[in-house]
């Protein structure tokens, strides 16, 4: 089925402007690296970033690890490759992909949000754990859980100063809405206000994203057979749960 998420297809050129790769993602990647170093049973050298998108996490991890990224979008993978020519990128669906190798560490970051039902969510973590070496660490970080979801939260984010140019500026407006709190997903609507050569162009995007209770995360991660360590990560005044899962 064709990917209808415009940020990863025809509007992917906007992605480098939504959050600075070398800045905003650096803190998070330092945290991820710290968790891997603390929990790994052997020195970790290789890392698989699942749902690597435009490669902003890869950019911050590649000095420490030999990184491979997997993503569903060829357009995003092309961006990731341009930003990180020294890393390896593979086209794949996080629910079903199988590489013929395993890694010392696996990162499952924001792309897991695209798992919109429990079966897909479980399949993604099974695939992630299948790519982990014994003694290796899988790091998973929920952006939002059923407990932290805020109905109708609307965020406006200006383009990063690095992305914005004299003839181009962008504002990203994102609204989240859950029409049915009893199911496993919610809706995100994005407005892109693109100011180019003195003209305003408005584009829209719509994603369905998964929403699970924290206890579901705990259970699904335990069911991978890993030993699950739960911690917290603080960013922009918000606290997020972080899981470091060690494969026996
Ligand atoms: C917000 S971007 C990830 C950004 C990334 N963390 C970075 O460092 O640049 C989300 C990504 O999830 C990917 N994605 C969505 N569904 C996927 C799936 N089933 N398998 C693999 N990747 C998927 C999209 O193609 C998109 O590139």
Primary descriptors:
248 residues; Rossmann fold; 7-stranded mixed β-sheet; globular; binds S-adenosylmethionine
Q: Cα-atom Rg, whole angstroms? A: 18 Å
For the record, what CATH class of the largest domain applies?
Alpha Beta
| Secondary-structure element order, N to C | HEHEHEEHEEEEEHEE
Uncertain stretches of 5 or more adjacent residues: none
**Helix proportion range:** 10-25%
The proportion of strand residues reads 35-45%
Give the helix/strand class: alpha/beta
Give the ligands present.
S-adenosylmethionine
Biggest sheet details? 7 strands, mixed
Cα separation of the termini: 37 Å
Outline = globular
The named CATH superfamily of the largest domain: Vaccinia Virus protein VP39
The strand line-up of the biggest sheet is 3-2-1-4-5-11-10
CATH architecture of the largest domain: 3-Layer(aba) Sandwich
Number of helical segments? 5
Write down the domain tally: 2
Mean pLDDT level? 95
Oligomer: single chain
**Which fold name corresponds to the CATH topology of the largest domain?**
Rossmann fold
- What is the number of beta strands? 11
